[in-house]
User: Which sequence fits this backbone?
């Protein structure tokens, strides 16, 4: 019974590691795309980054207001 559970564990570890490698290959291929993308994609990326920064700034301001209320 111990051998069977060890074999199952080993197989699960191999499957998990192999799926991690395949997902890394997919992200590498996405990053390897040409640097000259269309203007729409660049603006979209810049807009996304701006939205993320705005969201973080709002959260920081909210936390600061809680700290001021606590004093």
Assistant:
């Amino acid at each position: 019974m111990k051998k069977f559970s060890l074999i199952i564990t080993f197989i699960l570890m191999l499957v998990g590691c192999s799926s991690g490698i395949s997902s890394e290959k997919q992200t590498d291929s996405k990053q390897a795309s040409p640097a000259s993308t269309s203007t729409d994609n660049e603006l979209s990326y810049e807009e996304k980054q701006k939205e993320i920064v705005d969201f973080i700034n709002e959260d920081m301001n909210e936390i600061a207001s809680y700290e001021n209320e606590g004093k």
The chain has two helices and no strands. The two ends are 62 Å apart (CA to CA). The chain has a mean pLDDT of 74.
